[in-house]
Write a structure and sequence with these properties.
mainly alpha; 67% helix
Length: 93
Amino acid sequence: MSTPTSQKVVERYDVIKARIQQAIEYLSTIENPNISAVAREFFVPRRRLQDRYNGIPSRNERLASNRKLTEAEELAVCKYIDRLDKMGSDTAS
């Protein structure tokens, strides 16, 4: 269950995320962008704007650092397990 405080934090994050996207669109129109000035203009954290402008995703958009399998490998393992499970259930009938 969400608390009112956590809802405010999520809403605030969404607002900042939208402003960062607007700032990035604005930066793409400038030949030599000044990220600090644009961050002040759009009221967003400079470092976060700089990271997004440089293509660094936010933490919740990144893959986990302890992830061992790629998407394709994980899918292959799941299909293999499903196939083994189906074979086991066919013999149990």
